[in-house]
Every structure is written in C-alpha cells, then in structure tokens.
Amino acid sequence: MADQAEPTEIPQSLPVTSAFSPYGEPVITGVNTLGLWSLYLKEVRRFLKVQTQTIWGPAVSTLLFLVIFDVALGRAGREVLGVPFASFIAPGLIVMAMMQNAFANTSFSLLAGKIQGTIIDLLMPPLSVGELMAGIVAAGITRAFMVGAAMVVAVILYPNVSLGVEHIWAIAWFGLMGATMLSLFGLLTSIWAEKFDHNAAITTLVVAPLALLSGTFYTIDNLHGIFQTISRANPFFYVISGFRYGFIGESDIGSGTSAVVQAAIGLGVFNLALAVIVYLVLKSGWKIKS
User: Where would you say this protein principally sits, based on its record (predicted)?
Assistant: First the structure.
C-alpha cells in the first residue's frame, strides 16, 4: 500500500552492545574475596559441626600419649634438655596433633566430593585455582590451631607439666609452618586419592611414622649417627623441635638460636616449594577434571 510507512533502518554507526562479556573474558577481576571467604567458612563449618570428633577428640587422645609416656618413662625425676620429661614431650604432642588434624581436614575436602559426586560444587564457582587452594588450606590451618588450643588447655590441667613461654615467635612460626605443610600435603593427597582407603594409607604409612619418629618422645642425640641423619631429613623433626624451643628455650636442632632460625627459614622455603607443586597439580586438573 502506498500510504504504509517504510521500516526505519538502524544507523550503521550505532554500536551494538551485549549484556554479556565476550567469551573467555573474566567478569571478576582481582581476588574473589566473597567467594574465597564463603569457601573458607564452608570448610570451617564442616568440621565444627562435629567438633567433638574433630577438635576435642584429638586433644583427649593425644593427652593419653602424654599420660602413658610420662608414667612409663618420666618417673624418678627424669629430665630431658633440662626440663622434666612430661614438659619435654608436651610441646611435641601439641604440634603433632595440630599437624595430623590439618592433614585430616584438607585430605577429606576434595576426596569426599569425588566419592559423593559433589566435587562440581567446588569446581564450578568463580574461584581461581589459587583461591580454591587458599580456602581449603586456610581451613586446615584453622582446625590445627583450634586443636592446638584445646591441647594446651588439656596439658595445663595435667599436674606434671609446666608450659612456660620462652620464645613466642618460635611457637607461632613453627606451629604455622607445621599446619601449613600438612594442610598442603593433605590437599595433594585429596587430589590423588580415589577412595578413603588411599587416604587412610597415606595417614598410616606416611604421616603417622614421620610424626612419631621425629623426636617427639626423645632427642635425636640418643640415636646412632645414620639415624640422626635420617631424622634431620624429616621436616617434622624441625617443626617439633622448633615448636618445643618456643616453650623450653632448648632444642636438639643445633646449638644456639641461629640453628633454630635457619630451620625456620628452611621450613618457609620448603612450604613455598610444596605450595607451588600443589598449585600446579591442582591447576592441571589431574584426577579431578578427567
């Protein structure tokens, strides 16, 4: 029809906008603090829901080690490094419980998702590999320090133990390094493991022997030369001896504070290297995305 209006043409000069960002372009830049905090709270609340098992249970069971070894070996006024035997082994038991529970927390995180089929809940949110790793590891460290605090309360109530603080920096640093190391190792185990038996095998065959054979109940000066060398290759030894140094001011790492400081720096470098390895493995998607 002649009187019908012709359709208006869209000027070619006007830009065509889209409600969505181009494919592959990240919407969240920088650190996703809200997502990281949410993941951290999720992991913390997971173990706090069963805190009788995850916090107080380990404290009680580790305290039994103190009672048994003190009764068996600490009688007749026995002293080690200038302090009563019970005061000698107490710091080692505290940090040993911290490390074992840090490992238990992170080694369960991804493994449970793989077994239950809910790992997509961790992989789909807009979290980078570093943020995913940081949230899980931070929760493991949090559990370690909660167990450590519960252990301190339990040990203080034990009549034969005196926990004096000689070097607060050593307590804080070696406790943090031990918890971080086992949190990272637990996350690596969680990536590798495909069933709970794999997790239990690492706990029984690797973590427990390294913890128990690291000078928790003895000084390595009592060992033969070759076994002293083996003990010094065990990173658990430096964590436990350095943590003990913070309480009693003595250590079998070496003579003087300089040896303890060198051990502290060495543990920091070791944890940094371990963190890089875990990051690269997690980023590759090995046994997670395949």
Answer: membrane
Where do the structural domains in the chain lie, given as residue ranges? 33-284
Q: How far is CA 121 from the centre of its chain?
A: 22
DSSP states of 121-173: HHHSSS--HHHHHHHHHHHHHHHHHHHHHHHHHHHHTSTT-----S-HHHHHH
Burial class (CB in 10 A: 0-12, 13-18, 19+), 224: exposed
Task: Specify whether the CB–CB gap between 35 and 131 falls below 8 A.
Answer: yes
pTM of the model: 0.87
Burial class (CB in 10 A: 0-12, 13-18, 19+), 81: middle
For residues 82 and 289, give the distance between their C-alpha atoms in angstroms, rounded to a whole number.
54
Three-state DSSP state, 193: coil
Q: Which two tokens stand for residue 218?
A: 């003895």
What tens digit of pLDDT does each residue of 88-124 get? Answer: 899 999 999 999 999 999 999 899 888 888 888 888 8
Contacts of 82 (CB under 8 A, 6+ apart): 248, 250
Q: Which tens digits make up the pLDDT trace of 174-225?
A: 999 999 999 999 999 999 999 999 999 999 999 999 988 888 888 888 777 7
